[in-house]
Amino acid sequence: MPANYMDNLFDKIKGGKDPKKQAAEEKKGAQKSPPAQAAGPPKMAANAAPNDYYAKIIENAKRAGPAKDPLEKGEVPVQIIEKIVKKAESRAAAKPAAAEEEEVVLSKTEKEFEQVQKVEVESYGDTKIYQIPGQELYYYWTPVIRPGGAEKAIINTIKEATTRIISITPYKIRDPEQRRNFYFQKILEIITNSPELNIPKGKHQFYADAVVREMVGYGIIDPLIKDDKLEEIMVIGPNTPVYIFHRKYDMMITNIEFYNDNEIQDLINRIARQIGRRVDIASPLLDARLSDGSRVNATIPPSTVGGSTLTIRKFREDPFTILDLMKTGTLNAKGAAFLWTCVEGLGVRPANILIAGGTGSGKTTTLNVLASFIPETERVITIEDTAELSLPLRHWIRMEARPPGLEGSGELTLDILTKNSLRMRPDRVIVGEIRHDEAFALFTAFNTGHDGSLGTVHANSSQETIIRVTSPPMNVPEVMMSGLNFIIIQHRLHDKKLGTIRRMTEIAEVTDALKGRPKTTTIFKWDPYTDSLKRTDEAMEYMVLLEDLTGLSKKAIEEEMDHRAQFLTQLIKNDVKGMQEVSGKLKEYLMLQNKR
């Protein structure tokens, strides 16, 4: 916005003409009076009453008509100026912003926190992690901006002016960071060029940031959204601390608290508007994905008795790689090399794999890692309830389920999408989680030449996985289990020293399905005493298949897996990080292998 933006507005308010109107009048030969030459807002005489001053501005504004808005090349209705001025008048009459001290409002949780003994265990940025004696959960502290009184009223004034002056819908700017920056700059310009608000220069950025948080941010939980060390943010109602799940400290309590249910519902409605959805008494549930990939679930009364709730599962900007899983102990180099070989299939026969485990065991993370082994020459279609996968593939089609509309129509289930994907000539199909009829469609893909397809399912063991898949509501015939090669089992466990850990506890091969009685053979088993994934002595049918298709001996294939394990270990030593860089190194390895 030009520095003389508000000056131009006041020029018009004081009697100037709109340039387009002036040109039109000149063309018609109409007489016009010269515009006022004032360079800024009129000065108020020392003895002038505020009411007379603002009344004069409003009267002049009515005569002058609309002013041009260089932000959107539209027009600013005089009513906007009138409202800003009227509200500024009420602020000045109540308490000038320049004389106002920032009001600090402490929640009940913060007041209790100030009174207890605590030990700081870590800090990063503005965040501090504390341990409070006698409490199991760690305490997460971050500065909370809670403007109160006149500050809040001024913020509301700026919000209203911004909404009317900037006509672009915020969420048309898809990138969250670009959206924030755009609005911050525009709001800062509006504040800077609105002297009638009487905001001291030192607080311009404070007000701009506060308005951005409320308009395109997440209000008081904004710092939590920006913290990449958090996996989940959980609002469980008003007058109750917000909980989080930290990647290092697990479940934690925070100093953030919503004072009433309206605050929570305002935030839920703001999120719903981002994705074109609505939350009300008739439709009190929201399950969706944000533009940054984060998954959000929200409820309002009457579905939740104690008040509105909000759960945000944060999307990791740079997804975990196979090296990350090795470094965190989820699996070791031998297990990683084995799975790499299975997914890539030595270029002849990729394996079909299901990843099973409980909630929070890391199934989706492992699925994303395995999918990163897929050669980029293949056409891959992913089907998910809420799109979470992030793959380094070029020929990748993402499909996402959709709930029915308000009229009960327009639903897109995983089953419908999976069946449709088979008509799109995919090389591989990946289903985020099978629960119902989509299981049959995925197993159809397993059995119709879409080798290397993947999926996840809720189950706690390989045998339980088979029982679940072949029983209602999935009802996959036992004979179709022959299309499934391996089941990976993952668990979330608690370690006294390490806290919450995720471990791949079993890799099992599915056999005897064609005989009508599918069973599993454990190929890798997690040893809790050594905390490592160990290869068993069991024979493997898939190994025999690779021998037949490649012409390599069992020894040669096992040596290749050992080479891959050494290669992955070396990448960790070389501090290779990030999905793109790791995928690039894996691609280089395969290119060299093909030349040998």
Q: How would you concisely characterize the structure shown here?
A:
The protein has 19 helices and 20 strands. The protein is of the alpha/beta class and 596 residues long.
Q: Could you explain how this protein is built, in words?
A:
The longest helix has 20 residues, at 554-573. This protein has 3 domains: 1-94, no CATH class; 101-317, 2-Layer Sandwich (Beta-Lactamase); 322-595, P-loop containing nucleotide triphosphate hydrolases (Rossmann fold, 3-Layer(aba) Sandwich), CATH 3.40.50.300. It is elongated. With 596 residues, it is an alpha/beta fold. Helix 4 (78-94) packs antiparallel against helix 6 (150-165) and helix 12 (333-344) crosses helix 18. The strands form 3 sheets. The protein has a 9-stranded mixed sheet. It has a 9-stranded mixed sheet with strand order 14-13-15-16-12-17-18-19-20, sandwiched between helices. Strands 1-2 form a two-stranded antiparallel sheet. The chain has helices spanning 5-13, 19-28, 50-64, 78-94, 108-115, 150-165, 176-192, 204-215, 222-226, 261-274, 322-327, 333-344, 363-371, 414-421, 438-447, 462-470, 541-550, 554-573, 579-595, and strands spanning 67-69, 74-76, 119-124, 127-131, 138-141, 230-235, 241-246, 250-257, 285-289, 295-299, 309-313, 353-357, 380-384, 396-400, 428-431, 454-458, 486-495, 499-511, 519-527, 532-535. This is Flp pilus assembly complex ATPase component TadA. Pfam families: T2SSE. Residues 1-47 are annotated as: Disordered.
